[in-house]
Amino acid sequence: MLKRFIRDEDGNILLLSVFLFLAFTAFAGLVVDGGQLYMNKTHLQKVANAAALSAGQELTTKDPKVVEDLAKEIVDKHGELSSLQNVDIILERKVTVKLNKPVKLFFSSLFGVDSIDVPAKATAKIGVIGRGYGAAPIGINESMELVYGQEYTLKVDETGSSTGFFGILAIEGPGAKTYEQNLMHGFDGELKVGDIVNTQTGNIAGPTKTGIDYLVNTCSDMNDRDCPRILLVPVYKPYNYTTNQLKQVEITGFAHFYISGPMNSQDKTVKGVFMKRVSHGFEMDQAVDKGAYALKLVE
Question: How open is the CA angle 255-258-263, to the nearest 5 degrees?
């Protein structure tokens, strides 16, 4: 009986060992297949995000093909053009990039499951900028009706007391930049809807000409997204008048202004074109829509 019991114990151990081996093999196979799926999912999502964000920068264009082509270009650069299902576009609102890729499996193929489709989707949406960095120290009255693409002549007010559509702003912040430096390189700090800003006093025609002439020589194409001639300018409403002089304004939004040529020193004007454009900034619901938009992923 003792010998038979020992033989039975050996058999049980053998069966248990086989069962444990199969269990560990299955677990290892699932880990391998799961890791494969996870890596592909992560990669595809990054590609979809990048394509949506890049294509979203062109949502203000009048041609949806420009948006679609840019999305395809980004997907192709990541080697996933064959995974692209479609690009859904609503101009001036949002773009959605959808990818789908069949991923081959290793362990699961032993049970007849050769691959699993891995989807990825990203949507980039634009909203009106209400907070922005790098703004120029010039502004426009919110009552100004803009015709995008049309050239405007903005008068430089030497007294800094503009009561019309165009004003010079005294922006102060980190680095203590001068007005001229802020015009050439943008304000270092953040401006946002609701901020109260002083108007610039004194004769600023000379510094304005220096800054405008500098910017005109930085680039020549208004379609260049990094062109410094495209200024982010605050939109304001009058806030504080003193003896018929506008002393302070309240920021209500932002606009983009492309400087079309050097400043005319004789009549002290700045010529340029307002344009709808997606740039860096943060959306705020209460911001006035003057064509300056921020971009964010919403899914």
Answer: 120
Compute the CA torsion angle 86, 279, 295, 54 (nearest 10 deg): 30
pTM: 0.82
For 67, 178, 180, 198, 268, the CA distances from 202, given in Å and listed in that order, are 45, 13, 13, 13, 14
**CA–CA separation, 299 and 284 (whole Å):** 19
Q: What is the CA radius of gyration of the chain?
A: 30
How wide is the angle at C-alpha 286 spanned by C-alphas 62 and 171, nearest 5°?
95
For residue range 190-233, list pLDDT tens digits in order: 999 999 998 876 667 788 888 999 999 999 888 888 899 999 99
Decide: 294 and 278 in contact? Cβ < 8 Å. Answer: yes
> Tokens in use for 91?
């101009």
The bridge status of strand 230-242 relative to strand 151-155 is unpaired
Residues counted in the chain: 299
Mode of pairing for the β-strands spanning 94-104 and 269-275? unpaired
Q: Which helix (H) or strand (E) holds 259?
A: strand 245-259
126, β-bridge pairs: 295
23 vs 5, 18, 29, 124, 205, CA distance in Å? 27, 9, 10, 44, 81
Cβ neighbour number for residue 268 with a 10 Å cutoff: 17
Taking only the tens place, the pLDDT of each residue in 242-285 is 777 788 899 999 999 999 998 877 777 888 999 999 998 999 99
> Which residue type is seen at 101?
K
Separation CA 202–CA 199 (nearest Å) = 10
**Tokens representing 196?**
């109260």
